[in-house]
């Protein structure tokens, strides 16, 4: 390490830093916290970190909920066409679309690490370059993923889906190909804006897109009577509306970090690709894990009811999950910004506050599901048999919601700290060596069926959450600051050091 970075005097002298007793401006404090030594200090840190977290997480979560609402309203409108249409659309959205969604979101998540730490270190000019590199890589990835959509029908049949479900799902998958390409623009622009905490505009764009999507669904399905083809067209138009609106905002209102198109975007693509792939593998192993439960359920008796009821539960789980993905993005911004600034304790305390608050929210969601377990399926289907099947799965849905309140937060910490490769190995073991085989055993070798598959998956998620919590607990945050500085040097040159090392 360069001599100028051999010691972090601000870290060594951390205990001498005075704890402020007035709210600080978001990501503008020039000093780190000292060790919390009293209840008043803990209460103050909790208050400050909560404000910082929710000023970022609130708009991000609202935007993601609006985006996910497009999926849910699509399922709601299609579900009232018929059970077959609901199952086919659910398979397409939860298997084919989620596969590409997870991979593209993971590839784009490299920007959370690089843009967040660069913004904290004051290297504003690099944010636009990173975003353009991500556009290039994600557009190329979309081309590679095209066969998944084009050959969705034989792929689903190979996975054991009923032919009539697979055929209809395959047609729907081809019709939503434009939506996949919109994600290659959408995700990098989101991460670019999130790193700067420009999240209010994301919320407004997401809300406008949701309203437009509902209007298009009414027009194409109810008025024009296009069936699920109308749902696909509405999905495509709404998705591209989001991407275009975000790009227009960046071009017009982000002059500090957007310096125009640059040939620098084509440099170091392979190094950027490696970090993107690590992020993608980490996230995909999570998203595909829950996608797999839909595929396995398709092999059970009466697959239309099994897949349909499970898809309704996964839809509600997704609503809660989208909220915590918003918190995931916020804690990633907080951790990466504070590490870029050279503030190890601020990074640590933001993690603690976020985990505790997220767990409380997850428990509230679980209680709400238990209270309404016999009624919420009415929103999605008129079938009494489907409603009863959903009610039987409600308890497992509650457990999943509690686990999902913590797990995405820890993943956000991993992205903010640049630990993607480590988490990918943990996910691989917990999900695919433990959870998936156990779920298969319970689902197919006992009479539990879909409940058994889900129980096994919950066990894998629980193990992964415990391991990640232990890793975060043992993390040396001073060392993380040093590694962040070295990462900035590698990516942006020898003069790229934290702008406020204290």
TrEMBL record:
Keyword check for Secreted: no
Transmembrane segments annotated in the record for this chain: 101-122, 134-152, 201-221, 233-254, 275-296, 316-337, 349-370, 390-410, 422-441, 453-473
Subcellular location: Membrane
Main location (coarse class): membrane
CDD domains noted in UniProt: MATE_eukaryotic (cd13132)
Short name of any one Pfam family annotated for the protein: MatE
GO MF annotation, one: xenobiotic transmembrane transporter activity
Gene Ontology annotations of biological process type: xenobiotic detoxification by transmembrane export across the plasma membrane
GO cellular component: membrane
Keywords: Membrane, Transmembrane, Transmembrane helix
Membrane-related topology note: Multi-pass membrane protein
Entry similarity comment: Belongs to the multi antimicrobial extrusion (MATE) (TC 2.A.66.1) family.
Protein's UniProt name: Protein DETOXIFICATION
Origin species: Cucurbita maxima
